[in-house]
Design goal:
- The chain is mainly α.
- It has one domain.
- Helices cover 50% and strands 0% of the residues.
- It has 4 helices and no strands.
- It is elongated, with a radius of gyration of 19 Å.
């Protein structure tokens, strides 16, 4: 998913818990679903950032050769400005973009 184009807020938003847990009927289950999706998003963003920053890695680390790399700084700032993974996951949950199931609730025939 392209997290750069998400319409998730960048700051904390107060939410109605009763609306948030309408699908599951249990606020703890809802929080667990959002938390698991948030971990997935954080992992994807971290991998993407690591790939972009590997281009700037040097083989020898010498304090005398350390210099500012404007492109590296801009990439890091861009990722810092993205909404937090929890806010992205919550927005996805509210928009019913997350598929989830609870194997314990599936009726056994």
């Amino acid at each position: 998913m392209d997290y750069k184009k998400t319409n998730a807020p960048t700051t904390t938003v107060t939410r109605d818990l009763m609306e948030l847990c309408e699908d599951t009927g249990n606020i703890y289950e809802t929080v667990t679903i959002i938390a698991k999706r948030s971990n997935q998003i954080a992992h994807e963003i971290k991998e993407e950032l690591s790939k972009k920053l590997q281009e700037f890695a040097s083989g020898n680390d010498n304090l005398e050769e350390v210099f500012e790399n404007r492109e590296q700084i801009e990439i890091s700032r861009f990722y810092e400005k993205l909404p937090k993974p929890t806010l992205i996951a919550t927005k996805e949950y509210e928009e019913h973009k997350i598929y989830f199931r609870n194997p314990a609730k599936i009726d056994k025939i």
